[in-house]
Automatic annotation (TrEMBL):
Record-linked PROSITE patterns: ABC_TRANSPORTER_1, ABC_TRANSPORTER_2
Boundaries of every ABC transporter domain copy: 6-212
Protein name: Cytochrome c biogenesis heme-transporting ATPase CcmA
InterPro entries for the chain: AAA+_ATPase, ABC_transporter-like_ATP-bd, ABC_transporter-like_CS, ABC_transptr_haem_export_CcmA, P-loop_NTPase
Keyword Nucleotide-binding: yes
Any coiled-coil regions, as ranges: none
Keywords: ATP-binding, Cytochrome c-type biogenesis, Membrane, Nucleotide-binding, Translocase, Transport
Gene3D superfamilies: P-loop containing nucleotide triphosphate hydrolases
Organism: Marinobacter xestospongiae
Length: 214
């Protein structure tokens, strides 16, 4: 098996005097999809934001390629693509303008490649429509088009199946499988019954009420 990209060692997170999780150890290995599962409030979004470097309310260690995350911050952030549970797109911009804005901070991507990515998520014919005029599922597809032009090996996706129809779900499942087959890794929170071949699982919070700190 390949060496882990990302490792969590003894992670603990407490919120408002409730322990969301503790003693959490796992490895994210190239070529895998990992599902983070658990009831509402179990801490799935919180965990994903910790992994993305967006939340430092935790104890324990995160290792990127075997080194402490803090010493590898720049390399780590360059290699990770995080999509939050909201589509995170600007309603006044078109799908094409949103993709330009989302990719500009990373690397140049041609309009042709962006149009192909939008086609890949079923948005052909919607390149120039302001996103506020798109449906919830179409807005989600704009955000997911980012994955089709991603070169980041680690994807952290929070509820990416939200608002997708059956074809959208199947397309995203295939995208995750293709990403893993090409040596990438994805960590996905979802309430959708995701069960991909070889999928790993991180299960949080048997009880939505969480534990009381001792
Ligand atoms: N910034 C914050 N400050 C205080 N508490 C927070 C904060 N963010 C989240 N929480 C609390 O942490 C708990 C876990 O929230 P989180 O969003 O991670 O759960 P989740 O498993 O993703 O839930 P869902 O399935 O409903 O999306 C919740 O009880 C929430 O109120």
């Amino acid at each position: 098996m390949s060496s882990p990209m990302l490792q969590a060692v003894d992670l603990q997170c407490e919120r408002d005097d409730r322990i969301l999780f503790r003693g959490l150890d796992f490895s994210i290995v190239p070529g895998t999809v990992t599902r983070v599962e658990g009831p509402n409030g179990a801490g799935k979004t919180t965990l994903l934001r910790i992994l993305a470097g967006l939340n430092d309310h935790f104890s324990g260690e995160l290792l990127w390629l075997g080194e402490r995350w803090q010493s590898q911050r720049e390399a780590f952030l360059r290699n990770l693509l995080y999509l939050g549970h909201r589509p995170g797109i600007k309603p006044l911009l078109t799908p094409l303008e949103n993709l330009r804005a989302l990719t500009a901070v990373r690397r140049p991507v041609s309009d042709q490649a962006m149009k192909q990515a939008l086609d890949g998520t079923g948005l052909q014919g919607y390149y120039d429509v302001p996103c506020r005029n798109l449906s919830a599922g179409q807005q989600r597809r704009v955000a997911l088009a980012r994955l089709l032009i991603a070169d980041e090996p680690l994807w952290l996706l929070d509820e990416p199946f939200t608002a997708l129809d059956r074809h959208g779900v199947a397309g995203l499942e295939q995208l995750l499988l293709d990403h893993a087959a090409s040596g990438g890794a994805a960590v996905v929170t979802t309430h959708h019954e995701l069960a991909l071949p070889g999928m790993a699982r991180i299960t949080l919070g048997a009880s939505p009420a969480g534990e009381t700190p001792s």
